[in-house]
Amino acid sequence: MQSRFTVVFSTGHTRNDFQGRWSQSSKTPDGDMLFTSLVTANTGAAIIIEVGFSESVRRLARDAETWLIGLRDEVRVCIIITLDEQPAYRMPASGIVGPGIDIDEEASAAREP
Asked: Per its UniProt entry, which superkingdom is the organism in (predicted)?
């Protein structure tokens, strides 16, 4: 069965055409999907993807609100993904990488011919 829509996934497209109280906003989604009908050539049902590593869930929810209400005629779904590293990564203490390994010695050995 032949598809009746094309789906385009993209990233890096900044939008600044929000409506209402978001009219001064400018946002770049982490990803978006746009569906275009092959029958009518109408574009619609955009899906926005926002990913937060250092952003709080509350901040991501505000971003979703901006997309969903500020572009209500275009955006139908906003997926938010939050990444929470537990425990948070910490750089090893200077000179130590692991049991019995000294990073300074390893670096010196790597520089020797």
From this structure: Eukaryota
Question: Is pLDDT of 77 > 70?
Answer: yes
Q: Report the alpha-carbon distance of residue 111 to residue 113 in Å, rounded.
A: 6
Contacts 24+ apart (CB under 8 A), 81-90: 81/49, 81/50, 81/51, 81/52, 82/51, 82/52, 82/53, 82/55, 82/56, 82/57, 83/51, 83/52, 83/53, 85/53
Which pTM value belongs to this model? 0.67
Identify the helix (H) or strand (E) that includes residue 35: strand 31-37
Taking the C-alpha atoms of residue 8 and residue 11, their distance in angstroms, rounded to an integer, is 10
- Three-state SS letters, 60-77: HHHHHHHHHHHCCCCEEE
CA distances from 16 to 71, 74, 84 (A): 10, 13, 29
47 has pLDDT over 90: yes
